Amino acid sequence: MKAMLDVWSRGSNISATSWDLDGRILQYFFTVIAEGSIRGAAERLNVAASAVNRQIGDLEYRCGHKLLECKPRGGIPTTAGRALADFARIQHEDSERLLNYFCILHRQHERSCASAARKVWPRI
């Protein structure tokens, strides 16, 4: 696995230990895309534009690619930016499905335990 990561990360600044996309960085990235600008994203997130810009710069450095093109109408995702956005959306959807599955298992377990408890401890 490490060898695959090393091959995949050649030419970028990704390493097996630094490829950690936290929710805040992705929230900033998606908000810039949604708002069309760093300033608009900063206003929506209620943070300084420099903080958003710094996070996007850090994300671009870690990915080894420019993720947003600065256009007169705002920030537009590059090919790499669209790929990251798609990847993050899929990861988020998969996480939601897994959590929902765990909730279903938990409810089934609770019903099973309650049923077993009724057999062992009938109503008095």
UniProtKB/TrEMBL annotation:
The keyword Glycoprotein does not apply. InterPro entries: LysR_HTH_N (IPR000847), WH-like_DNA-bd_sf (IPR036388), WH_DNA-bd_sf (IPR036390). It holds the Pfam family HTH_1. Transmembrane segments: none annotated. Keywords: Activator. Residues 21-78 form the HTH lysR-type domain. This is LysR family transcriptional regulator. The lineage of its organism: Bacteria, Pseudomonadati, Pseudomonadota, Alphaproteobacteria, Acetobacterales.
